[in-house]
Amino acid sequence: MQRPRPIIWIAALLLLPLSCSGPVVTAVGESNDLVIIHDGEATGRARNQLVRAMESGVDWLLGEAAFNTTVTTPTIARDLRNRRQILVVGIWNGGDVEREIARKIRSLDRDAPPRLHIERDIWAKGQTVGVIMGGSEDALVEYISEHGPELLSEFETAVRARAVDKLRSAAAESGATDELGRRFGWSLAPPTGYDFFTTDAADGFVFFRRIRPDRTVFVFWQEGEEHFVTEEFVVSKRAELSRHYYDGDEIEWRRPLRIEPVEFAGRSALRVSGWWGNRERVGGGPFLTYCFYEPTQGRVYLVDATLFAPSMDKVSFARNLDAVANTFAVHPLPER
Fold it and tell me: Is the pTM of this model over 0.85?
């Protein structure tokens, strides 16, 4: 097989202009760091429930915690308010959390039952902030206890959406998305540092790669119909592609494998999350594959993200790769 050849260098991320009406600092921290701000002793049980929910183990990442949490109160949180992910839990009792949040988010309803309210850019630009307020700690504990997995999923979705918007904006400014759209009828928006490789156009396979650690996102497409999108198709097609292009990588069936219907880039899809291995090269790691049908093009796509990061925590890298995959967008098909 002819060695894939690089054709595009993805441009560096550009800083967005600061708004005079918004935060003037930029959020910092990894995508798996989470600061939880609470009302001290008044919300101790609720805080503990929330920590347990957000530190739940990710099964296909072999039990690594979804977030690494830091717990604090408003009076000592000032040095942590520029973090990228923040969750606030408090009681409507005139305490520190209420005073702090009421100044920032005026749409909260103190008479409503507890629910997760998500905002962006409260204290820093590029920030995702979740707020849960209740009339009593008992109400907060009951809500978090009953809805822990949903809270984690909703917050993770908001974090990913923020990352996707940032990546798409930077790629659009650099012209990378237009170039990919003209060539292939779709675009992806990885951040700086990824090389882009393509095979013969008829293969319908290209991939983006960054090393240290090794992260790869591929896009495969073929003519097809909606009924192609099945568990059997996505697993067998991914196995075929990884054997051919990834030097014999295989799915590790001894590890957890999850296949589930999801929404991907605004369309229905199947997502496979699991572990790959390569006995020849003695390596392995997590992967995510999305499979979906695009009716405007008559194509079936696989968008796959693969990580090789031995002896490293993988949640942050996997979450960032998932955001890259979710920047996928459809463009008009190139003229034949």
Answer: yes
